[in-house]
Write a structure and sequence with these properties.
This protein has about 260 residues and is α+β, with helices and mostly antiparallel strands. The protein is built from seven helices and 16 strands. Helix 5 packs antiparallel against helix 6. It starts with a helix and ends with a strand.
């Protein structure tokens, strides 16, 4: 991916068929989420990433990207700038200032590929925890589901806001409480809403439950950038998907599709 970004605005880059498959999947999810999950947001996300890095090393001079810089970067986030040639296995970014950023999908997609490899080897009872992306294969050996806690955004290290009984599925959470930096006493987290180019302000945490970890990863980011009503509508339109929303006030809401998985504390 780095090579493709380096050649933005230049000639097509030959890549592996697996990368083509990943990018086509990303394009499908872009359409499914009405652009809320967009791997082409690299130009905007880089501005925030750079300021977060600066804040970590030089907190007294922490600042957020300027509105002018964000507005300019947002001109280069369209999926139309990505040309995928499946026949020749090439990828080209047509805009020299556009960049791919796979943070909203890459980890979940890789987790699902790892799960597939284990299943192919006959694994029947397993939990993968890859940076917080949970992929559960089957049930416990004794036939029980795994009890899975959803962190309390107000106290993520010591408390849980909810518990779910999960088996043969994925559980992915996006939240505002782990990756952030502070400017003038205000926290700015890493999940950027493509409409405002600012950190999304709807929720503190979104958890998605579905079989495919890549889909769960993408949807957790997309739902974080939507109102509850719009997010619930999207969730209910996709078979086998459920979600748990934790509001900025701590309120917990579930889609009907996963209420039966909730464990009383």
């Amino acid at each position: 991916m780095c090579t493709v970004n380096k050649h933005a605005g230049g000639e097509p880059v030959e890549v592996s068929p697996k990368l083509i498959e990943f990018l086509k999947y990303a394009e499908k999810l872009y359409e499914l989420t009405n652009g809320k999950m967009n791997i082409m947001m690299g130009s905007v996300l880089k501005l925030w990433h750079d300021e977060r890095t600066n804040a970590a090393t030089n907190p007294q001079n922490a600042k957020i990207p300027t509105s002018e810089a964000l507005a300019e970067a947002s001109k280069h986030v369209g999926f139309e700038f990505l040309e995928i040639n499946e026949e020749n296995n090439t990828v080209r970014i047509t805009d020299k200032d556009a960049r791919i950023d796979v943070g909203a999908l890459g980890k979940g997609y890789a987790t699902e590929r790892a799960a597939e490899a284990l299943i192919d080897k006959g694994v029947e009872h397993y939990v993968l925890n890859i940076g917080g992306n949970i992929r559960i294969i089957g049930k416990k050996v004794n036939g029980e589901a795994w009890k899975t806690g959803i962190k309390n955004p107000k106290n993520p290290n010591y408390e849980y806001s909810a518990y779910l009984n999960l088996a043969d599925t994925s559980c992915v959470t996006s939240g505002d409480y782990e990756r952030y930096f502070t400017v003038d006493g205000k926290k700015y987290h890493h999940i950027i809403d493509g409409e405002s180019n600012m950190p999304a302000a709807y929720f503190s945490s979104i958890t998605v439950i579905c079989k495919d970890s890549g889909l769960a990863d993408a949807l957790s980011t997309a739902l974080f950038c939507m109102s509850y009503e719009d997010g619930l509508s999207l969730v209910e339109s996709i078979d086998g998907v459920g979600a748990l929303w934790i509001g900025r006030d701590g309120e917990v809401r579930y889609s009907d599709s996963i209420k039966h998985l909730v464990i009383d504390k």
